[in-house]
Amino acid sequence: MLGFGPLGASPLGGIPGGGVGVPATAITLAAVAPIVVAGVRIDAPAAAFALAPAIPIVGNSVLVRVPAAALTMGASAPSAGWYIGVPPAALTFAAAAPVLMTGTRIDAPAAELALAALAPTVTTPIHVPSVALRFGTRSPINTYVDLTRPDTVYACTLAAVMSVWNLDDGLPTLGDEVIGWAPDIVQAEASTAANVATHPLMTSANDDPPATHFAARLSRISFRRSMRGGDRFGGVAQGDGMLILDNADGNYDERLFQAVAGTGIVVKAGSPDIPFRYWRTIIVGTARDQEFSEKTYSLTMRDDSFRLQLPLRDTLYLGTGGKEGGDALVNKSKPVLLGYRLNIAPPQVDGALLTYQIHDGELDAVFAVRDRGSALSFGEDHANFAALAGATIAGGEYDTCLAEGFIRLGGTPAGQVTVDAATYRSSGKAYLAAILRGVLEDYGPITAFDEPSFTALAAAYPNDHGLWVGENDDATIRDVVERLLDGVAGYVAFSRNGRCRVGTVVEPEGTAAATYGMADIIGEVPHERLPAMLAPPPWRLRLYYSGNDTVQSDLAGAADQVWAQPGLVALASDTVVRQTYEMAQDVGPFDSYMIDEADASAEATRQLDIYKLPRPLRRVGLVRRALVTEIGDLVDVDYDRLGGQRRGIAVEDNIEVGDGIDQVEMVVYG
Hints:
Layout lengths: L19 E3 L5 E2 L19 E2 L11 E3 L6 E2 L8 E5 L6 E2 L9 E5 L33 E5 L7 E5 H8 L16 E3 L16 E2 L10 E2 L3 E12 L2 E15 L17 E6 L10 E13 L3 E7 L33 E9 L3 E3 L4 E3 L7 E7 L2 E2 L1 E5 L3 H6 L6 E5 L4 E4 L7 E6 L9 H12 L7 H10 L5 E4 L7 H10 L3 E5 L5 E5 L9 E3 L4 E2 L15 E8 L22 E6 L1 H6 L4 E10 L2 H15 L5 E6 L11 E6 L4 E15 L2 E9 L1
Parallel strand pairs: 6-8, 15-29, 24-25, 31-37, 33-35
Antiparallel strand pairs: 1-4, 2-3, 5-7, 9-10, 11-16, 12-13, 14-15, 14-38, 15-18, 16-17, 17-18, 19-27, 19-28, 20-21, 21-26, 22-23, 22-27, 25-26, 29-30, 32-36, 33-34, 36-39, 37-38, 38-39
Helix pairs in contact: 3-4, 3-5
């Protein structure tokens, strides 16, 4: 195991001043009264107003700075001032006029901060570090982050945390604030574990690992994640990085003769005054290779995106006859159907029996079977391949074995046999989120998922998607994932704590996950070149829907000629963009992997609305509180040269620590 300690003080100090969100009617103005206007912040001296003992009518319009001495919370007043933005049930004002102070911000509704004689246990997050709340001897309502799942934030009493977490060595200082660094590299075998840190560290007897010394050997960390690839944003966001350790004394020389590929790496951030088991995981990776010099030992690493390079299928046809096919299929991959797909050309596994395999596994449904584009009639389904092989089927009909993914014809076909079929259906639909989850989990080795992101994708695309991977397509898991994502401008990324998350590139609208201002920005904010599809912007975008998996030229006379085309086309266009930009692009058509026209048309419009505007691509160096931002998050960047605050989507980030650098570099589109 390898860890590292803090690299200087946290950039996340208190925010100047404090605030109570109240309307003008909540304040009794003294002789020197400020102008109070709804929606305007007031920074007035104590003489300007006096807070009455009564609970005011509170809104979110005017902010008035007050210190802790002005507030009575429970039996005793807290020891420091802070921002407070809460409704009246949370506050009882003392009679004394306040003196303006500074402090830490609290943003929570009354239900989360009902500061009565006993603090209640609540479940809604309050995003503040524990040091922000001190209520005399009372148990504070506080924020605690479960560092085994850093995406989970708990707001509860100290007593509840003590009970759940079995805290026995003090209250950790936790919250949204990242107050130090601490990588923790876990080697594949305990005997080769390397425990290192940027500063000397000793874990407690209750930590994992217990009572372990971390040598101060870690000198540099770099780790980059990006979903910038191809002609636009999206796809699989790949994470790559490097750890450099001090090897001036030759401590790691013996590793020259050891294989490190596959070694697990975990990098954590924390502070010496927090138990090591509560440090926040910021990188989860796997070692690829090692490098040596006279003074350093380096490990290159990847996040779990490398696991998607595996072949989609391990099962091959044996060529022994029956459902294992003949000589023409030996050592070819068995087909896989992912969702709902039209006009698949399944391989014939037994010419004598006229059996074809659509999917190596169970099918949800076979909707149609066609010979040269002409539909055959359905007979019946059979429990297994043996029953299907022994059945009597009339000419012009077909039977199925849904349990094993086969069909069988009742007569010799006149030409190409094609099929419409589906897997991964729920409530009659093959959802994109379910298909992606199936590819990653059923065919891939991914086990840790960011559940809310999959729930959100399912809600955004409650419609049929699908693709088919045939016997001659040696696609990797990544290939298949990126094909599906390409249709919706989507991405898969691995979060800082190693969970697989999904999403789509969206317009920079809605609630931002984080805001970064001039105090957070390090250095200049250069603009970078946009992907090819975005510069110049497109004025028209086309998507295939009802995608035809087998384009046919030898169709029967009465067959639907749609099977002679790669699919139907949905279109979105903006003639104003075409007139404005002389070189505006006509993009597509490319496959949406959708079935319905309305779904594809809505998606084409959504993507065009994102790409048709000339949005900048900016590289921003930030202080380390930017570690709370994930790839795909919406962020606000407030920078003078950009004309103020602009919202965008994080498409790349890069952690750089060491050699005098301590920053999180982020590339933002929007």
